[in-house]
Amino acid sequence: METLIxxxxxxxxxxxxxxxxxxxxxxxxxxxxGKREGDETDLQTLVREIEEELTVRLRPETVRHVGTYxxxxxxxxxxxxxxxxxxxxxxxxxxxxxxxxxxTAWFTAADRALVPPVDQLLFDELVGxxxxx
Length: 133
Prior knowledge:
The chain is an alpha+beta fold. The protein has helices spanning 42-54, 117-128, and strands at residues 3-10, 13-14, 17-23, 33-35, 57-58, 64-72, 80-88, 91-92, 101-107. Keywords: Hydrolase.
């Protein structure tokens, strides 16, 4: 039986580099965001997760869908698929990693191998759109 992990992510690009974060206790970087709780909408999940991870408030009226991607989870067991709905948005505040995030980094296309398979699909699309260096 296949399992689907449903996530949302914030695509924040500055000067051809995308913001990524490494959660505490993990050795891989991800696009900021996370899993839906209960019956949250994508917007509610996105705003909550980014505030929890990066201590900034996304401006809901500026949220725009970038794309939705699906790929096998990075770590087996087999049969686990990650769906990541990606959005851009403006924010208020100062980007500061919370205790959930060990570090942040600004990645280019050259860093593609450092993110999970579903994030790599986003990287590929952003490169194709000439948004990622």
